[in-house]
Amino acid sequence: MDIQSYLDQVFKKSFLSKRERSDLAEEMATHLHSSKEHHINEGCTEEQATTKAIASFGDPISIRTKLTQETYGLSSKLILQFIIMSLILYFSSLFAGLVLHYYDVHNRVIELLPVAFITICALSSALLLTRKNTDRWCLLSVPILFGLGYLQAYLGLFKNMFGGLDSFTLFENLFFSGAYDFSGRNSFMLIGGLILAVQTLILFVISKNIYISLMPFAFSILYTVSHMVIFGSYYLFFGDHFSSSVTNGYNVFAAGNIQRLSDIGVKLGMCLILFLTLSSVKKLIFKSKLQAG
């Protein structure tokens, strides 16, 4: 193995930025070539000197794990394990739900399990966007509004908080995409988007990380697509024999999908506008700091 091949193995799937990989690779290459020259001067052949220089640095996988852990606080292996396992559990829980429904076993917990696993998968993946603990706390706050929407839809959380029977459905209407199956939610589409925009701005003020700040929109789209996949699978296999407390037959679900696709389009548009706006703001802040310095 030559030095370049060794370095390629070290930085493969390291999750480091392009600049970080370039800087670290240059530094390591300098040390490796220096060590190689030392061994050549001691009488080794070029191949022997290369082998000894590489051996002195250690196993490339171990170095990659150490570099990623120092950068993220978590090893690349652990991050990948979280992502892969939660994704497997998402599809496994969906498949298990379909099998159980075939045997007439179905409840809201079975419907909610895939949602929980896709949330873990999304949070694990988002860890790759940041190395700061502040950003990670911001990430943990992102699913809260959607969690309230699901809990209100499935468990009736806070619905009776104002005394009227099932009178308070704000979280369900704004942050649970299944509400599109019942008419009247179109008026909430922009309102929900505006609330997510406010959440995005708050996260940006705290973290200064544009990608972390835009996670509310990413999660909104993720939950909407996931809802379509989960309930679409049930209707595909069982048709109108499938029943749930949060939907009302295939025709209603299919009509709701049109609104869900519109919602995805609106959220993508708002996300793009905010990305461009926050990028401009960040450049202005950076420029003003340079001028002040």
From TrEMBL:
Q: Which UniProt keywords apply?
A: Membrane, Transmembrane, Transmembrane helix
Residue spans crossing the bilayer: 78-103, 109-130, 137-157, 187-206, 218-237, 264-281
The record ties this protein, via InterPro entries, to:
Perm_prefix_1
Under NCBIfam families, the record lists:
perm_prefix_1
- State the protein's name: Uncharacterized protein
The species this protein was found in:
Paenibacillus polysaccharolyticus
